[in-house]
Amino acid sequence: MDMPEGIILDVMRCWRDAKDHGEAVQPYIYQTLARHRLEILVPVFDSLMTLCEAAMKRSIVAGEDGDRSGDETALIDMLVDPEDARIYIGCTQEDCILLNCALRSTRLMMEQAVAGISTGRSQQY
User: Which domain of life is it from (predicted)?
Assistant: First the structure.
């Protein structure tokens, strides 16, 4: 995985914080990812986190400071290998398939976004 884990942890934690405070999550994720020029990933991470919670049937638990939560570790491991979703989340086959697709899509989008930055391509709209 090309994207630094610290960025993923920051996204997870700001997403969780926004949800806990009843705020719209995408502006929070945008602020986090814009620092790294990865704001194109905002809806990707919002969807992934939402699907993770739906599959787990509970809220994602975020870690604090330098300590990862079990959920953060699981999500990072699942992004490395989407097949790990079956190990970490006991969900229905349908939910597992949806989560697996979201993990693969997120991974692909992360690779594309990071590659775009490292090659110096400018964003064109």
Answer: Bacteria
